[in-house]
Amino acid sequence: MLFFLNRYDNDSQKQFEDEERVYLSNFGVNVVKRRVIVADGAKGAFISISHELRNPLYGILASCELMEESKLNEAQAGLVETIQGCGTSLISIINSVLDFAKL
Predict the structure, then answer these.
(1) CB hemisphere CA count around 14 (13 angstroms)
(2) Which of 24, 47, 80, 88 has the fewest CB atoms in 10 Å of its CB?
(3) Buried b (16+ CB within 10 A) or exposed e, 54-68
């Protein structure tokens, strides 16, 4: 009789451990799912912000091109050239970041 009771206890303990393992595994999967959802939302927001930065920057660069066509003194021409160089660098950085974010 003790043998059967002991076996029952062992079976019950094993079943409890199996259920606990499944519960903890499911809990871990749910945590990972939530993190993926949050990360995906952050990625979308980041891409949106990057696009919002790029649009005004193109406007600044277009304005610089128009300014170049007008009569500028040497100092003004130098400033427009600096603005264009910096703007072009920023566009390049934003595009690289967007390409990386698409991965």
Answers:
(1) 6
(2) 24
(3) eeebeeebeebeeee
Distances from the Cα of 25 to the Cα of 1, 30, 37, 39, angstroms: 36, 9, 19, 21
**pLDDT per residue over 80-92, tens digit each?**
999 999 999 999 9
Which residue do the tokens 């206890």 mark?
9
In sequence order, the 6+-apart residues with CB closer than 8 A to the CB of 40 are none
Q: Where are the domains of the chain?
A: 2-101
- If you compute the radius of gyration of the chain from its CA atoms, what whole number of angstroms results? 31
Q: How far apart are CA 48 and CA 94, in angstroms?
A: 12
pTM: 0.54
Residue type, position 78, single letter:
G
How many residues in total does the chain contain?
103
